[in-house]
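One thing: can you check what follows?
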Amino acid sequence: MKPITILGAGLSGLTAAITLAKAGYQVHVYEERSDSGMRFHGDFQGIENWSASQDVLQEITAQNIHQNFYIAPFHTMYLTDGTTTFPATSSRPIFYLVKRGPFSDCIDQGLKLQALDHNVEIHYNSHKSIPEADIIATGPSTKKVTAIGKGIIFETDHNDLAMALVHKEASLKGYSYLLVSHGHGTMLTVCMYPCENINTYWKKTCELYQHLTQLTITNPKNTGGIGTFHLNAHLQKQGRRYTGEAAGLQDFLWGFGMRYALTSGYLAARSIIEKKSYKNLIRHHLSNTLKASIVNRYYVDKVPDYGRFLIAQGQKLKEGEHAKLMQRHYNLSLFTRFMYPFVKISLLLSKKYS
């Protein structure tokens, strides 16, 4: 077996490396930064648990990943438009909270240690050209920005909390979120690109969350980032497999990308091990949820007050059933399947996500 070269030591690249190494391959991972997780600063992020019937923890266990990092299940997520606040609840976790960054309890470092345990050779501060690689897992591209986030990480004495804010003055066609766990928090506004006045949206996000929660913030540090997703995912070129945001694989509605990153890295490895078509594996495992999220994004762009629309839908359900509603949004129903080609053409013509 020839050695495998992977570009990028993030979630997607390391998942691919672990799977390949367990199958007996010699794997080299090249990362331009000095360590895994250097894009982040201990930020909280959520691995969504609503787009598929299988719990995501079972899914990543099947993808050869074990839990050697901080992870916390959340069964309640508050949804607000700044005026009305509604608790979305679920009998199974709505999402799992993880930390991102170069610190010992972050998922990035957990996967790094697992890769090293399987004798993967990781070359930090190293560059390798794309034609030399088998898997491209380099994350979002600054040349193809679709969404941009601005926020802070901080310490607080507030109780654990997950709150999503959908308000037209707090984000541009996106949302803001507040995540608090064990005395630490992350607050961010996510705006669709281009967004020339993200500081204005960020200021409104801070004002609304302060009004809603009376949050005490100490030791704040700036954080943020960009997101990349495309209507036509760039999966493979000249035998090279592209994974995660390097391929444009991202949830179009909310931008939850970690599940796509982990799964696409695993599938890229499987395509090499089993000599199967990577494109076909992606289509089988991710195509339906991607298509549904694209149709969801189209409606979000059209609905004038999406926050109130979501709250009105949630209030009709019984306690504990809200994750099921969210899962239905990601199922490719007959209506969604029918709408998808028209929605895709409309979005392509708008050139927003092409």
Observations:
- DSSP finds nine helices and 16 strands in the chain.
- Residues 273 and 342 are 37 Å apart (CA to CA).
- The longest helix spans residues 278-302.
